[in-house]
Amino acid sequence: MLIGVPKEIKNHEYRVGMVPASVRELINHGHQVVVETNAGIGIGFTDEDYIAVGAEILPTAADVFAKADMIVKVKEPQAVERAMLREGQILFTYLHLAPDLPQTEDLVKSKSICIAYETVTDARGGLPLLAPMSEVAGRMSIQAGAQALEKSNAGRGMLLGGVPGVEPAKVVVIGAGMVGNNAAQMAVGMGADVVVLDRNVDVLRRVDAQFGNRVKAVYSTADALEKHVLEADLVIGGVLIPGAAAPKLVTAEHIKNMKPGSAIVDVAIDQGGCIETSKATTHAEPTYIVDDVVHYCVANMPGAVPRTSTFALNNATLPYIIKLANKGYKAALLEDDHFMNGLNVINGQITCKEVAEGFNMEFVDARTALENA
Ligand SMILES: NC(=O)C1=CN([C@@H]2O[C@H](COP(=O)(O)OP(=O)(O)OC[C@H]3O[C@@H](n4cnc5c(N)ncnc54)[C@H](O)[C@@H]3O)[C@@H](O)[C@H]2O)C=CC1
Ligand SMILES: CC(=O)C(=O)O
Ligand SMILES: [Mg+2]
């Protein structure tokens, strides 16, 4: 198979779909790889590094899209990239379609085969291709929140851990999955007073076993959520209903009643956000203020630490890229239900139920769509 790696073009996005070591693995399996010039330069990989492992360098994204059977990326294709997709071409990347109708419509129109990292599942109920970036974003959320609380950023002027004699900030983490757990770990490490909410009791048990009495693990009712959010200095939004738009758990009314200068980091923004007043921001301008609450809603947080993030992402995606390349998409997906859950759009049909329902569009079962492809 001929695999193409374009340079990422989202604002301040320096990650790359494949590092040279991954390219080498694919070439060892008998495949060809084309890489857009300077695709890895933001994390220190030159064209020569890719050439050294056997890749061919192409001058533009258009060349890569025109040549490749499968495009491997990081972020959802931007409008100019969507226009370059063609019928029968495989796209393997993050998509986050639920909050993004224009992208969904373009992918349907393209008749390409769109497999989303974030909806691939595993036998333990996890999301193996979302997990590494959720680890990064969860850890970063506390850094971002700590900065948002600084006075120069319109925050309350509070140090997360306080100092002896001065109480720490209260950090409220909504959702105790991969993002929430990593956020809690960092917040505890910085000495904050940490509350974690989830609606899955087993998840709360795990939080309790991991952190003991350093974290309060709270069952997430509307009542509990309101109480803790209104007391918070920093709220981290880390809920997920896989494939679907995030539920708006923190309302505009809550935001109005939060302490002036408090901050929210809505990590779930890539699925539309779990805070009513959230709207996606970029690394160039990460925050804005609503009712004196600092909002940080960057949809590609791991892009800020692209070296760590690219390696972490590639460690997870490589075996799946190899499977797609070796077996072809049909066999690779049909023989593995968990991998098949990654299929969101194929030949103009939507195969992710949550996306189809969210947009009132027709849903086609992935197995049926694949068998008919
Ligand atoms: N902004 C960014 O750059 C990034 C965003 N993300 C996003 O962060 C979000 C969280 O991802 P993960 O932690 O990997 O998901 P996860 O599936 O590991 O955890 C989500 C948690 O939310 C909980 N939850 C669901 N509904 C809830 C409710 N009503 N109240 C309380 N808890 C609830 C679930 O029980 C689960 O424990 C996703 O939207 C993901 O796409 C992930 C990485 C980077
Ligand atoms: C998961 C995601 O949205 C990101 O890594 O940018
Ligand atoms: Mg207020």
TrEMBL record:
Binding of substrate, residues: R15, K75
Xref: InterPro entries: Ala_DH, Ala_DH/PNT_CS2, AlaDH/PNT_N, AlaDH/PNT_NAD(H)-bd, NAD(P)-bd_dom_sf
Catalyzed reactions per annotation: L-alanine + NAD(+) + H2O = pyruvate + NH4(+) + NADH + H(+)
Residue span, Alanine dehydrogenase/pyridine nucleotide transhydrogenase NAD(H)-binding domain: 149-297
Binding site for NAD(+): S134, D198, S220, V239, L240, V267, A268, I269, D270, V298, A299, N300, M301
CDD domains tied to this protein: L-AlaDH (cd05305)
EC number: 1.4.1.1
One GO cellular component term: plasma membrane
Domain of life per record: Bacteria
Pfam families for the chain: AlaDh_PNT_C, AlaDh_PNT_N
Keywords for this protein: NAD, Nucleotide-binding, Oxidoreductase
Domain Alanine dehydrogenase/pyridine nucleotide transhydrogenase N-terminal: from-to ranges: 4-137
Record-linked PANTHER family: ALANINE DEHYDROGENASE
Entry's family note: Belongs to the AlaDH/PNT family.
NCBIfam families the UniProt entry points to: alaDH
Listed name of the protein: Alanine dehydrogenase
Native species: Pseudoalteromonas phenolica
